[in-house]
Design brief:
- The protein has 227 residues and is an alpha/beta fold.
- It has seven helices and nine strands; from the N terminus they run ββββαααααβββαβαβ.
- The protein folds into three domains: 4-65, no CATH class; 74-119; 124-223, Nucleotidyltransferase, domain 5.
- Helix content is 33%, strand content 27%.
- The strands form two sheets. The protein has a five-stranded mixed β-sheet. Strands 1, 2, 3 and 4 form a four-stranded mixed β-sheet that branches.
- α2 (74-85) packs across α4.
- 32% of the residues are buried.
- The structure holds zinc ion (ZN).
- Zinc ion binds at residues 15, 17-18, 20, 50, 52-53.
Length: 227
């Protein structure tokens, strides 16, 4: 079977620091990712750099598709967390994925589950302000990528540093009407912060409008590229 490959460029074309046009540098990540629909796709994240600063920028879309160092999609990692929370056994989870044409061993299920527990334990109250400080020192501005992964029952909200592509926090909610979601977003989105850009999901009647309300009116919202 011919391998399907998708290349992703940064969502921005100009340097956030000096506004020069970015040029292609190198693939920052190149791996075959297993997706929840059973497909395996080679995802290349192409870094573009500024010709005058030393900074390079990556695709937020390619970055959020899988966790760093893992070849399963972020959605599969969230599904493992969800099924474990429902007390499904490893065997049940394995069988479920096998039925969807997703190859995953019970060892990998444990590995993904432990990784998710580590990530869910990230304290956004620490990681986000510390990332903000670095962004302001380097670029005099704050930029984020915020993804939403919706499973049947749970909603996972993931916050990434736009510049380093690091995952800063994941929180899990039952619905987007959960008042805790607003409390969580309010903890790092404030009108008096220099937030210039948020890359987020394309079509959504709830999350993006909620973030807009909390950000300065000048914050630009971009969508992740089409997958
Ligand atoms: Zn520059």
């Amino acid at each position: 079977m011919k391998e399907v490959c998708k290349n992703y460029k940064p969502e921005i074309s100009f340097c956030p620091k000096c506004n020069r046009k970015l040029v292609y540098r190198y693939p920052i990540s190149d791996k075959v990712v297993q997706f929840s629909n059973g497909k395996k796709i080679r995802i290349k994240n192409l870094a573009y750099g500024c010709p005058s600063c030393r900074w390079v920028f990556v695709s937020q879309t390619a970055n959020k598709l899988s966790l760093k160092g893992y070849t399963y999609s972020t959605k599969i990692a969230c599904m493992v967390d969800d099924y474990k929370k429902k007390h499904w056994s490893r065997e049940t989870i394995c069988d479920f994925f096998a039925g969807k044409n997703i190859e995953i061993s019970d060892r990998n299920i444990d590995m993904l589950y432990h990784k998710m527990q580590k990530l869910l334990a990230l304290d956004g109250a620490v990681t986000i302000p510390s990332a903000y400080q670095k962004m302001i020192d380097r670029f005099s501005t704050i930029r984020l990528a915020v993804d939403l992964i919706s499973l049947e029952e749970r909603r996972y909200v993931l916050v990434y540093d736009f510049f380093t592509a690091d995952l800063l926090a994941i929180r899990c909610f039952w619905t987007l009407d959960d008042p805790d979601l607003k409390v969580f977003l309010e903890s790092f989105l404030k009108k008096d912060l220099p937030i210039s850009m948020i890359v987020s999901i394309r079509k959504d009647a709830q999350l993006v409008p909620l973030m807009r309300q909390l950000c300065p009116p000048t914050t630009k919202f971009l969508s992740f590229n089409k997958f």
